[in-house]
Design a protein that fits this description.
Length: about 325
């Protein structure tokens, strides 16, 4: 696997988490290239316009001495069939280029296809009711039958039910995770991860062996919504990642839909909040089929914020 020195410098800056996509863009605009960023002095990096903390600047300066480690990490990806996708590459999902703070680099098991747009994200709590599991699975199966790609987060509960439902219908599904891809490498062909990669893709914007943490999970939610044209929240409590995904979807101009549940069901409180804020009610397969038809015709529009929900204080 051969990488240009410029791309290797970008990888080091992103995978070290010295900066995120927006920070990388700002640094490259200032210095002209990622290679020049790594040759900068502490004083240059601490220019007020760059908005870096001293700890970040010191980490960036240290990266020039550890590029070999990042080259080895890239080789490990290559050997495990993990692809590196920069934003300008042909295989990079075009819907993600549209969103605020778009990722500059992804790793992927599998591949994004043009037929994955429009996709629908089906998300929800890790601890749904049995009816919530059945609903997620059935909605995803309807998507699969309509040849609409299902996007979700590979978490327990609603996410896994959504992936399984899409696969059961012979459809495609995309997963976005908050850790490095080499930490979820499937061990057998029947593993869900392997089946997703064979009928879609698993994406991450983190280093191959990065551990999952709360910040990673919150950031990955913007990619889950960004890959789709609509987000369906199946079940959610008053706080949680599904509501964060819905909030990102609004900001990205995606359609937000939620499944209505009885008001006394704890797992349905988040859906109730979304519906009160203007989300589209999605009561079953017929409503979903109607949404799919609108998305295919380019008529689906983002959900206008009816009121300010404090969804990101999770």
């Amino acid at each position: 696997m051969r990488l240009s020195s410029e791309r290797l410098a970008q990888i080091a800056l992103l995978w070290s988490e010295a900066v995120g996509p927006a920070g990388l863009k700002r640094l490259m605009a200032s210095f002209g290239s990622a290679e020049r960023v790594l040759r900068a002095t502490i004083d240059e990096l601490l220019s007020p316009d760059l908005r870096l903390r001293r700890q970040q600047a010191e980490l960036i300066v240290s990266l020039r001495h550890s590029l070999g480690d990042y080259e080895k990490a890239c080789e490990a990806c290559y050997k495990r069939y993990v692809h590196l996708l920069f934003a300008e590459d042909a295989g990079f999902p075009p819907p993600l280029r549209e969103i605020p703070n778009a990722p500059a680099l992804l790793t992927a098991f599998g591949a994004w296809l043009p037929t994955d747009d429009p996709g629908i994200a089906i998300v929800g709590t890790r601890m749904p009711t049995p009816e919530g599991i059945r609903t997620a699975w059935e909605l995803a199966r309807v998507c699969g039958r309509h040849r609409i790609t299902v996007v979700s987060g590979l978490a327990h509960g609603v996410d896994r039910a959504a992936h399984e439902g899409a696969l059961a219908a012979g459809g495609r599904t995309l997963a976005v995770i908050g850790s490095g891809l080499l930490r979820v490498s499937p061990k057998a062909p029947e593993d869900l991860e392997a089946r997703i990669a064979g009928s879609g893709a698993i994406f991450s914007e983190y280093a191959p062996k990065a551990r999952v943490n709360a910040a990673h999970l919150m950031a990955r939610n913007r990619l889950t919504s960004g890959l789709a044209r609509a987000v369906v929240v199946v079940q959610a409590r008053a706080r949680g990642g599904a509501l964060v995904t819905a909030d990102y979807a609004r900001r990205q101009g995606r359609v937000v839909a939620a499944v209505p549940w009885p008001e006394d069901l704890p797992e349905g409180v988040g859906c109730h909040l979304l519906l009160e804020a203007g989300a589209r009610p999605l009561r079953g397969p017929d409503d979903l089929s109607e949404l799919i038809a609108e998305l295919r015709q380019g008529l689906g529009r983002g959900t206008p914020p009816a009121e300010q929900l404090n969804l990101l204080n999770d």
